[in-house]
């Protein structure tokens, strides 16, 4: 990951990885800086409460996901 003035300016794949021979998808190669620094980027998790999306802590969001996943057997997830 290339960083300049505390901003992401580019990314590259893992050269030692076997998947995709270090290549990134198009969005990864060309879009990451604008996605990361976009003013409307979500920076906190949202959970649905009473039909509305509301901000939650990471612990709340992960606990919710874990409880939902616990309803399924291992071969279904």
Automatic annotation (TrEMBL):
Keyword Cytoplasm on entry: no
Gene Ontology molecular function, alphabetical: 4 iron, 4 sulfur cluster binding; metal ion binding; NADH dehydrogenase activity
Pfam families the record matches: Molybdop_Fe4S4 (PF04879), Molybdopterin (PF00384)
Any one annotated GO CC term: membrane
4Fe-4S Mo/W bis-MGD-type domain ranges (all copies): 4-32
Biological-process GO terms, alphabetical: respiratory electron transport chain
Keywords: 4Fe-4S, Iron, Iron-sulfur, Metal-binding
Cited InterPro entries: Mopterin_OxRdtase, Mopterin_OxRdtase_4Fe-4S_dom, Prok_molybdopt-oxidoreductase
Domain Molybdopterin oxidoreductase: 41-73
Matching PANTHER family: NADH-QUINONE OXIDOREDUCTASE SUBUNIT G (PTHR43105:SF10), RESPIRATORY NITRATE REDUCTASE (PTHR43105)
Stated name of the protein: Uncharacterized protein
Organism annotation: marine sediment metagenome
